[in-house]
């Protein structure tokens, strides 16, 4: 009897956890919940109108992704934006994205290659006259497609761990610092090179994009260094 | 109110410790094949097996499921995953990328204390190379892995590699049961530990690639055997 209950709990909880995760991730990435803010589990349960267990599981995932810190005595803290942590992340993101790009160039299906081209065209258009939101959406789509087209579930799970932090950092700084047309072109170039199927030029396109993101992240350091 | 809060947080800290304990015990049972690949059991079975309650066991199972060692089947219970020979090459591909970076940066960033620990581990590996022992090398591999995670001072890369670590350990356990090559692994590991002590990133990275090449070649043997 008790067993049946546990099992039915397990099956309905999965989707609620994802819903809770997606809502919280967006609130944090777009700074509706600001870095340094302290949250309580019970408040989140009320605000999202989702039960305690799914909220707790979503929070655990967000903690693994580095967006929050669960502190035993103080509650849940939204982590600070930290450019040196971003640089550490880029250090291995470069290697991982190259692995994805090479595998994608070699192993993407025809369908996936067409999807890369669609994103490349969209990114080119954004470079000329695009909105920030349009860019964020295409960027998200490209992340997902890169992770999928490599056909390496382990690598795509690994890259999934950092998308949240990367998205949040970008969203917090792109208005003041980013060169949007250049950045869109670099994304378009990467998508196109993966679609074309040569692993080495795809890896070079990753390098170009990561060089730019590193430069972007370093440029934010002056904002953090400014005395208050 | 305050004291209620304190009670709640001390309970949650105790639970966290229990979750870690549950995780470590279940991981070991799975990695050393005491929980048989492909078998299914209930959450309650596992609670009774290790004598830890429902919530910590459930949290531990979520982590094990992310690491690919169990599959949580709604309505049916917990399945110990089949050994992933097919995913082997994909995992090695990712592990190679991540470990090469960890070795390179670990060689540069290890603190004097960590270097001292690496030198002790190197000596322990020398001993295992002379007197091969399965439990000892599994234990040493775990310490070496944790130390390298700390020494590279990059929490992101550690979180990513942890997604693979459990399944890799299980494969290695199976491998050691079949082959008499513990000394080969132990010697390569001792060399890596020494390169990290010396702070030589190029040598450390080269040793990782040599080790991954060796693992890939043994993996080819495994896939052929299991296909027969």
How does this model look, in words?
The complex is a heterodimer of chains A (about 230) and B (about 230). Chain A is mainly alpha-helical. Chain A has 9 helices and 3 strands. Chain A has helices at about 1-30, 40-50, 50-65, 85-105, 110-130, 130-150, 155-175, 180-195, 200-225, and strands at about 40, 70, 75-80. Chain A has a 3-stranded antiparallel β-sheet with strand order 1-3-2. In chain A, a hairpin with a 3-residue loop joins strand 2 (about 70) and strand 3. In chain A, helix 6 runs antiparallel to helix 7 (about 155-175). Chain B has a 3-stranded antiparallel β-sheet with strand order 1-3-2. The chains are: A mainly alpha (about 230), B mainly alpha (about 230).
Name the descriptors.
heterodimer, A: 228 residues, mainly alpha, three-stranded antiparallel beta sheet, 9 helices, 3 strands, B: 228 residues, 78% helix, 4% strand, globular
Task: Produce the secondary structure layout.
The complex is a heterodimer of chains A (228) and B (228).
Chain A: H1 2-29, E1 38-39, H2 41-48, H3 52-64, E2 68-71, E3 75-78, H4 83-107, H5 110-129, H6 132-149, H7 153-177, H8 180-196, H9 199-225
Antiparallel strand pairs in A: 1-3, 2-3
Helix pairs in contact in A: 1-3, 4-6, 4-7, 4-8, 4-9, 5-6, 5-8, 6-7, 6-8, 8-9
Chain B: H1 2-31, E1 40-41, H2 43-50, H3 54-66, E2 70-73, E3 77-80, H4 88-109, H5 112-130, H6 134-151, H7 155-178, H8 182-198, H9 201-227
Antiparallel strand pairs in B: 1-3, 2-3
